[in-house]
Fold:
Amino acid sequence: MSAITIAVDGPAASGKSTVGQKVAEALGYLYFDTGVMYRAVAWAALERGIPIEDEGRVTELAYAMDIGIEPPEVDDGRQNTVLADGIDITWKIREPEVNRAVSPVSAYAGVRVALMAQQREIGAQGGVVMVGRDIGTVVLPEAELKVYLDASLEERALRRHREATQRGATSTLEEQIEAIRRRDEIDSSREVAPLLQADDAYYLDTTDLDIEQVVQRILDQVPADAHNGDDGCC
Ligand code: DC
Structure:
């Protein structure tokens, strides 16, 4: 078996985390969602009353924080357990205030440098599906497989709206469209590591595909000897 590194990028709600986790499971790889690290910094800044516009203090915080990402030991739908200085913030980082704060936080160059070292260390081990906005372009430009997932704004907002409704939240579809449009704008137009498709990425528009179809198309791109399955091969 020769495990590879898979970089998955794309805009908010394009299906990266659901699909990334399933691809990792199918291959017996580690799944790593880099977005939770930016969310952890945004949450901690809000928690400590640090103004999100204060780039210096937010950056200091990113360097000082100990962000832990561990396998889920609670069965409540989480993909990983996210810890900030030992506190379980897995669900706190999905709150609307964090959704609003995270794009500006992730646009700060210093914050990105602080978090990238850990991302690269994990990527260097191989056998990992790493999900984010700049994985194929900046964090792991040498990844053997790069995937760029996309979907129309309306479809992505609809996916988020369904998830929110299932959780009992009361946001409208129009609010989701507006929130995602705003995040797209910030993620794509920031100066440092903007959301971009790598030249050598496999582009997949998921608007009319279901999750299993997307997973299968990505698995079709993975060389047969890169599967870390239990077929006894390695
Ligand atoms: O994928 P997500 O919604 O959890 O990402 C949260 C924010 O972090 C989003 O605004 C984009 C940003 N992000 C980033 O800039 N670079 C990454 N590698 C991952 C996420």
The pocket of 2'-deoxycytidine-5'-monophosphate is lined by residues 12, 34-35, 38-39, 102-103, 106, 132-135, 183, 187 (CB under 6 Å).
